[in-house]
Amino acid sequence: MNPIERALRAVDRTQQRHRPLAAVFGVIKKYGDDRGGLLAALITYYGFVSLIPLLLLLSTVLGFVLHGHPEAQESVLNSALADFPIIGDQLRENVHSVQGSGLALVIGILGLLYGALGIAQVMQHAMAEVWNVPGVRRPGYWPRLARCLALFLALGLGLVVTTAAAALVSTTLGGTLARIGGLLLSAVLNSALFVACLRILTPKEVHTRRLVPGSLVAGPLFTVLQAFGAALVAHQLRHASAVYGFFATVIGLLSWLYLASQITVYAAETNVVLARRLWPRSLLQPPLTGPDREVLALLARQEERRPEQHVDVAFDPPESASAPEPEGPEPDDRK
User: In whole angstroms, what separates CA 81 from the centre of its chain?
Assistant: First the structure.
């Protein structure tokens, strides 16, 4: 055993003996097993695809509403739209030149429908992957479409509630106290919204209480991302915007969306690991721990695509894990 492997084995033994460390490592390990980065990238792509038509639709509607009404333009500049990452700066600079267009309105609606349905479908796929639901047990097109509509309704109601709560806090309190109270209230509401959205996206056999731990983590993190993520991205792109213009805005939007997607996937992975007690996981193999074997078996069984297809998983004993495989029939003849 070389010094590097010896050190890694020592770290592995330490994290397996301490439950908090083992649980955190279990979440990270499960994220890698499920290709969480790829799932987050898919969510980011469809989020961006749906966001661009939304901005086109928003600018078109604002063009019809704000034309010739400077008071309404000032109200938009003071609303929550101006605080949206990256887009807020563009809105402040160009609100007086926004104009409505019937063609842009039609294109925006069709593009928003395509992108919104895409992100809802991808998020359902991500939750099924995270919970290792076999393909044969995943819902068909029409049930998925119904879940998409339910997700849009939940997000719309959540946006209305959070906006009203923020307005109430700002009118009741003032100064730093209002800012702190608004962040705390936003964290609570975001956590509740995460529970509602995960309930819609997650397979029915998963009990709602198993969706709470990850939501309690994701809600505050998403609040921090809303409050400080926009400022951080804007700071990083301050000089890039002068050189690359709109391309820097696109990069900033993608970065913000990818962070939000990663929070969502990690929240779901946290729920799975805690619900199934998938820890401790081994950093180096062999040997495999019990949770290691369970995750590998679940990954294999989720590939079932037909009712008549059954996937069975078996593991060699630890002492023979490194021994050569015995001679047997060709792979095509195995059961």
Answer: 22
